[in-house]
Design a protein that fits this description.
about 30% strand; elongated; about 120 residues; alpha+beta
Length: about 120
């Protein structure tokens, strides 16, 4: 069975993680670090960041992005979003509890910014 998501692709710093709209829909992001590295990816949904190296989700912040952009051997700083793919479902199920703003793609997510 196919998932009915419509991917929206952003490349070369087109997606600003702090200024782009926050939506309930997951966005897969490849981070670029200050040392030129692009070897780490995260997922954001609403204002939450999911990283496989973290035990739980964290709120998006520059400090957590710096941590995600670093490695055990080398400390780096977050530079920009190298590539992002936002997965939008045009017909979400009621049980997913997607906010009205995200369901209609009209407003920023109320779960993130309390404005939906």
């Amino acid at each position: 069975k196919r998932l009915k998501y419509c991917p929206k692709v952003f490349r070369n710093a087109q997606y600003n993680i702090f200024k782009s709209n926050f939506y309930c829909w997951p966005t897969l992001i490849r981070l670029a670090s200050s040392d030129g590295g692009e070897a780490h990816s995260i997922v954001v949904a609403g204002e939450w960041l999911f990283d496989s190296n973290l035990p739980e989700a964290a709120k998006i912040s520059i400090s957590i992005l710096d941590w995600c952009s670093s490695s055990d051997e080398k400390e780096s700083r977050f530079s920009h979003v190298s590539e992002a793919v936002q997965f939008i479902n045009k017909k979400p199920r009621d049980e997913w509890k997607v906010c009205v703003g995200c369901r209609k793609m009209e407003k920023r997510c109320f779960l993130a910014q309390k404005c939906g």
